[in-house]
Amino acid sequence: MALIVQKYGGSSLESAERIRAVAERVVATKQAGNDVVVVCSAMGDTTDELLDLAAQVNPNPPAREMDMLLTAGERISNSLVAMAVAAQGADVQSFTGSQAGVITTERHGNARIIEVTPGRVQEAVDQGKVAIVAGFQGVNRDTKDVTTLGRGGSDTTAVALAAAMKADVCEIYSDVDGVYTADPRIVSDARQLEQLCFEEMLELAASGSKILVLRSVEYARAWNVPMRVRSSYSNDPGTLIAGALEDIPVEEAVLTGVATDESEGKITILGIKDVPGEAAKVFRALADAEINIDMVLQNISSIEDNTTDITFTLPTADGDRALEMLGAMKDAEGWDDIAYNDQVGKVSLVGAGMKSHPGVTADFTEALRDAGINIDMMNTSEIRITAVVRQDDLAEAARALHTKFELGGDEPAIVYAGTGR
Ligand code: ASP
Ligand code: MG
């Protein structure tokens, strides 16, 4: 008997009708002879609506109360799914994150899972019940307060639970059929992928693909939990994410896909002294403010005055905060200036095949050249090439790379409701 964890995103639970459809799938999976644990996101746009409500009563709500509020979203969908499953005659029991043993750090709004102790969930499963667990939430042992895992955190709940219960697979349901070679809303001939390895999915998620939350893929890789991305609107088998990069035979390694990211901006510090420790000051200050930086570029220093420029990208959501902080350091450090550009975008090409194919960078840059797109910054990993370009050029850059590397399929991609959540 297999144990299957199924996670349903908000778009799969947006109405009573959709919840009944989910319950049908859950019960069918159970009746096919599997043990089933279900993880629910909040219905539709509930989380956004709750955030909006909170802002109307307090522009700066206490983080603990915010988590009390947001965790209610998943409790609602969770109990409704349990009721719908019960209506189909199956034995069922729902659990909050805390009841399911999801233990987290105490950081409200962005807690990390420390461990999962799913004793009660396991017991329910052993009794032949379908267990339904509220996603996106946990509890801290010291404060005893409920926490949330950051936006999209139900993916992480599902994978962590699957790991703790040694599930055979963790299925992630949304309103798209799987992982595509590019965002089908940007690249019309994007093709659905049958399978990719954890590292490829990690690179795609880190490069702006929104199909899975990065942390959930990190977890899946660490615990070797196969994930299947599927649609709750169809019976397509979806995309399997499993296996390690080093286990892919060279002849099977291909280029997987293109991802775009509009969420980052770029800061340049001009005229920073080119001596040991100057960069460290900048990045320590950013780290202390919990600002995640992504790409970093430092120029060679100018001969006249031994100063250099440092450029880095960061989430535009943190842009103002970073500018304020660096602005306060500028005079004391003797920097010439600080420049900020939030009209940039990141386009990335990912694939295990890059390891063994020389010339991918040449083709990548030529594709952008032929599309008349200027490259602002570049960086690479073993299986990824990323360029920062003007935000207005981003979609065209994705299409140019997708075409150049022949990633497309013959048919236009089917996107049901189209959010991928
Ligand atoms: N409901 C939460 C959110 O919208 C968590 C999730 O959907 O996974 O971010
Ligand atoms: Mg949601």
From TrEMBL:
Substrate binds at T47, E74. Its EC number is 2.7.2.4. It comes from the Bacteria. GO terms for biological process: diaminopimelate biosynthetic process; homoserine biosynthetic process; lysine biosynthetic process via diaminopimelate; threonine biosynthetic process. GO terms for molecular function: aspartate kinase activity; ATP binding. Keywords: Amino-acid biosynthesis, ATP-binding, Diaminopimelate biosynthesis, Kinase, Lysine biosynthesis, Nucleotide-binding, Repeat, Transferase. The keyword DNA-binding does not apply. It catalyses: L-aspartate + ATP = 4-phospho-L-aspartate + ADP. ATP binds at K7, Y8, G9, G10, Y180, R185. InterPro entries: AceGlu_kinase-like_sf, ACT-like_dom_sf, ACT_Aspartokinase, ACT_dom, AKii-LysC-BS, Asp/Glu/Uridylate_kinase, Asp_kin_monofn, Asp_kinase. GO terms for cellular component: cytosol. It holds the Pfam family AA_kinase. Pathway: Amino-acid biosynthesis; L-methionine biosynthesis via de novo pathway; L-homoserine from L-aspartate: step 1/3; Amino-acid biosynthesis; L-threonine biosynthesis; L-threonine from L-aspartate: step 1/5; Amino-acid biosynthesis; L-lysine biosynthesis via DAP pathway; (S)-tetrahydrodipicolinate from L-aspartate: step 1/4. Residues 267-346, 349-417 form the ACT domain. It is an enzyme of class 2 (transferase). Catalyzes the phosphorylation of the beta-carboxyl group of aspartic acid with ATP to yield 4-phospho-L-aspartate, which is involved in the branched biosynthetic pathway leading to the biosynthesis of amino acids lysine, threonine, isoleucine and methionine. PANTHER family: ASPARTATE KINASE (PTHR21499), ASPARTOKINASE (PTHR21499:SF3). Belongs to the aspartokinase family. This is Aspartokinase. It comes from Corynebacterium glaucum.
